[in-house]
Amino acid sequence: MPDPDIYVRETASGQRVQRRAKKEGEESAQAGSAIRELPEDRGLQSVHVDATELMVYLDTAVSLPDDMLTKVDRASMGASLEARVPLLDHRVVELAWRLPLDLRIRGREGKWVLRRVLDRYVPGPLVGRPKMGFDPPLGEWLRGPLRDWAEGLLDARRLRDEGFIQPAPVRAAWDEHLSGRRNWDYRLWAILMFEAWLG
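Predicted structure:
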């Protein structure tokens, strides 16, 4: 279990809480700034706030609306889709928050009670499968339809003339990626975005 202070300081939720609090000012009644102030500013050291509950709350109040749901909304609208998030129906959320923490999280397994219900109806390998993101197939794209574009941005002469990035390691990674010996998709993508930004 991560330390709640470190979680608030170093996670996406915590950083958003801090940014939101600064943006909204001290008089803000928003959840982010209220949670940020709980331990010190309001003198509630004697009130027990479970660290796990605090982190779950931060994810619910900050990460979901400011990050995850925003991305789902933009991606679905970009493809003219209407996305639904059935587990965020207010009745499901209210029920989940009323459940004791040990029914929601058991050990390192989240959504514990939901998984036990699913065990009745869904094959075990599907219930126990780890989360999978929606990463684009950058590796394939860089070897395929984006290859010429990337080759132009990663040209050794261009990189040398700009003087920001050493061409040799970039070219070595690009060659390894193209040959299929290594998958450098995200590292190459970061360089490509920088180069595209330079114009």
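Summary: Confidence is low (pLDDT under 50) at residues 26-47.
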